[in-house]
Design a protein that fits this description.
The chain is mainly α. It is built from 4 helices and no strands.
């Protein structure tokens, strides 16, 4: 279960923030931006964009912490970062994070 490691492990926290950040990115792209550009509701992108930006910063901080603590390879760290820039990317990297989490 995704929430089981919320307080116990940095990789578990990284998986959770990746999931939340991924959802916020999808909300920004597929809800807030259409509301802004099709309906003229600019507040949608301001609110969702700010939330996504903060979540992205937290994601990067936890990525750096987890990479240092658990000795992620440069390749894995780069994949996690690049995937966070793509829609649905953090959901695909969750499998790799789960594998790393189970090894510990």
């Amino acid at each position: 279960m995704l929430l089981k490691n919320i307080h116990n492990d940095l990789i578990g926290n990284f998986r959770i923030i990746g999931f939340i950040e991924g959802i916020s990115y999808l909300l920004l792209l597929f809800i807030a931006m259409p509301l802004k550009y099709m309906m003229g509701i600019a507040a949608a992108t301001k609110i969702v964009g700010m939330a996504h930006g903060l979540l992205f910063i937290v994601f990067l901080i936890i990525l750096m912490q987890a990479a240092q603590k658990h000795h992620f390879s440069l390749k894995d760290s780069a994949i996690f970062f690049i995937a966070s820039l793509l829609p649905f990317g953090t959901f695909f990297t969750d499998k790799r994070l789960k594998e790393l989490e189970e090894r510990l």
